[in-house]
Specification:
Blueprint lengths: L1 H18 L9 E9 L2 E9 L9 E4 L15 E3 L11 E5 L3 E3 L2 E3 L2 E8 L5 E6 L15 E7 L2 E14 L5 E18 L4 H12 L9 H11 L6 H14 L3 H13 L3 H16 L8 H13 L1
Parallel strand pairs: 3-4
Antiparallel strand pairs: 1-2, 2-5, 5-8, 6-7, 6-12, 8-9, 9-10, 11-12
Helix pairs in contact: 2-3, 3-4, 3-5, 4-5, 5-6, 6-7
Length: 301
């Protein structure tokens, strides 16, 4: 019985070992890059081949739209053929929110990122299948989105790269670079204000007693972005904070919100209270901007 038990155990261990896959160093090494654009997380995972002195990276043409494993082509990445946009596994592209790629909508999710090079334009493909080796079993029926982009001539780059360039508040360029080619496409996260406001509202439900920053930060976002329909709501967040601790900044922010809501008398009261509190602090905070606005409010009375 014991012998049978140990034999079964060994069989199980060997079966487990056989099913496990070794994770070994690869010549084309893996890179994982993450970029936050506004409130959106963009993650790209790919493997980076080198030219290794080869002069035939791009430029030839193939009639095989999908590469055939084991077949040799006149160049490494032929025109007209789907490319994994890297080496080894297919490149993956993941976004936490819906975005626009060169103006076209891409839902939140994780995609296999493929490209089809051509002389005058490249096709960038976001495919619903993101777990394939290369592009050998690429299925166009699984495409979520295709966009056409213009390749550009660039300085020689030995190691293929994908990166984020020209960062702005709500947009970035994702750029494929290799050999003497630069291929950019734009990612636009859109109007994030409603999403951020929704996030703030949800967080306001769980503010702890010893949290003296979240309510002011939420109200500041509303004020700085002129979300006028939410001013009254932002004031309630500040009131909850002021019940825990009065600060000059919170009172000044409340005064500004009140004034811009047409409640001048209440704004003056909050502003005066902020200035009185500032007098008790050493060193005294800079209240010049508040004093200027307070004078303007009082002049209107």
């Amino acid at each position: 019985m014991k012998k049978l038990f140990y034999l079964s155990l060994l069989t199980f261990i060997f079966a487990l070992s056989a099913s496990a896959q070794l994770s070994l160093p690869r010549e084309s090494q893996k890179q994982e890059i993450i970029q936050t654009v506004g409130d959106t997380r963009i993650a790209i995972v790919y493997h980076r081949p080198n030219t290794k002195g080869r002069t035939n990276i791009f430029g030839c043409t193939s009639t095989d739209v999908i590469p055939i494993g084991g077949k040799t082509y006149d160049c490494l990445v032929p025109n007209g053929q789907v490319w994994r946009t890297g080496a080894n596994d297919n490149t993956t592209f993941e976004v936490s929110n819906e975005v626009k790629i060169n103006g076209q909508t891409l839902p939140a999710g994780k995609y296999g990122l493929h490209t089809i090079p051509n002389k005058d334009e490249w096709v960038v493909i976001f495919n619903k299948v993101n777990t394939e080796w290369g592009s050998y079993r690429y299925d166009a029926k699984q495409d979520q989105l295709r966009v056409t982009v213009k390749p550009q001539t660039a300085e020689m780059q030995e190691t293929m790269s994908l990166g984020f360039e020209n960062m702005k508040l709500s947009t970035t360029e994702v750029v494929v670079r290799w050999d003497k080619i630069r291929v950019p496409f734009t990612v636009d996260v859109g109007d994030m204000k409603p999403r951020v406001l929704g996030y703030i509202r949800e967080q306001m439900k769980f503010v702890k007693a010893d949290d003296f920053g979240s309510q002011a930060a939420g109200a500041r976002y509303v004020y700085d972005n002129k979300l006028t329909e939410s001013y009254a709501e932002a004031i309630t967040w500040l009131d909850a904070l002021l019940q825990k601790r009065e600060t000059v900044n919170a009172l000044a922010l409340k005064a500004n919100l009140l004034a811009d809501s047409g409640k001048t008398a209440e704004a003056i009261a909050a502003g005066d209270k902020a200035l009185q509190l500032a007098q008790t602090i050493n060193p005294k905070p800079n209240t010049a901007a508040l004093e200027k606005r307070l004078a303007e409010w009082k002049a209107k009375k």
